[in-house]
Amino acid sequence: xxxxxxxxxxxxxxxxxxxxxxxxxxxxIGGILYFYWGDPxxxxxxxxxxxxxxxxxxxxxxxxxxxxxxxxxxxQHNKAIVAEVAKQVLVTVNDDLNYVTKLTGFLRGIPPNxxxxxxxxxxxxxxxxxxxxxxxKKTSTQTLIxxxxxxxxxxxxxxxxxxxxxIELSHHIHNIVADNN
Length: 181
Fold this sequence. Notes:
Elements: H1 2-35, H2 40-108, H3 119-150, H4 153-179
């Protein structure tokens, strides 16, 4: 709703500037014709000067309108960048979930009473945790970029909590591995 109102205000402002300039110069031309109707060279010079001023004010009005509308473009562009970074965060979070799913699937596939410190199993667990933590760093970095773009304090708190949760998960899995031997 706010964006529609801002867009409407920009269009309304632009139309208002055009109408104001046109009205001013129509009255100027009317005044010139009224006061100098009998002298053709005076009317010609006055209309020429008025047309020059009209061109100058039209250029200035266009610059004001362009500057006013430029802010709308910049806001839209910034929102497109935020949307792209948010999409990247979702992709990396999805990758984190895939790593967790892969790791839990591997752990569930280990037969009961199998020592987890067995070289192959332990190496695979460490490899999966490292991949999860590496991707978690990427998620944390992408979320930090998103926070810097939006300055959303809640997002920063969630980023820190998410990163801490991944670290706690890896410690928990290490403890399970150590306790099962």
